[in-house]
Amino acid sequence: MGQYLSDTSLPHKTQHALAQLSNRMARGDATTGRWYPQVISLAGSKQPQFRSMAAWVMGQDNRCEAFHRTLLGLLDDPAPLVRSNAALALARFGDPAGEQQLLAMLQPFTLNATRAGRLDFRAREGDSMQSGGIVARLSVANDGNPVDVVSPIAGSVARLAAKDRAQVGAGDAIAVISPGETQVFEALRALLLVGHARSLPGVDRFAVGVPGMSERVRQQAALTAQAIRQRTLPSSGVK
What's the pLDDT score for residue 235? Predict the structure, then answer.
């Protein structure tokens, strides 16, 4: 485990080591602390998949102040999945610093073009989408290296925001991705712990029921809304 946490030349081995470490931490294995510095180091990796997994692992020990400080920094990460995992982990610390990111996890994500070029959509409206799934390809005349635009979250393509084969500029919106059920459920569970009254509109929407979401999500939203109201809306007024 120590070898693959330090040597990231085989990414799947490093990811497997992080998963194994997370499981051992969840079981209360007291020997895992010797690998904490390597987890923190991976949280600063150039590879977002390592930062994302490191954030998730750090949430397994909510007594480690070094993890807490590192997670706060990851809330400003450029990768949405890293920010989300950091916010989920911080909720385990009882820290509401990631509340805005948790609310963002309940909302559709606008996917923007990473460069100027001609769009070639590889997904259609309504298609299911895994994290890292290709939504479109961007090509530039006389450039033989097209760039894939991928979804950073799992979910479904709610809307295509541009026309196929259209020319777009860097930063232009090309698609809107609805969050998947797992993401919504985890965000709701975290908001149950750290959500404030300002989170209620976003939570209540799922408590009423959202098309495409299961009864499990609706029930979790109802429990979360109830917990937030009990915690933040006492008879004396809103905190």
Answer: 56
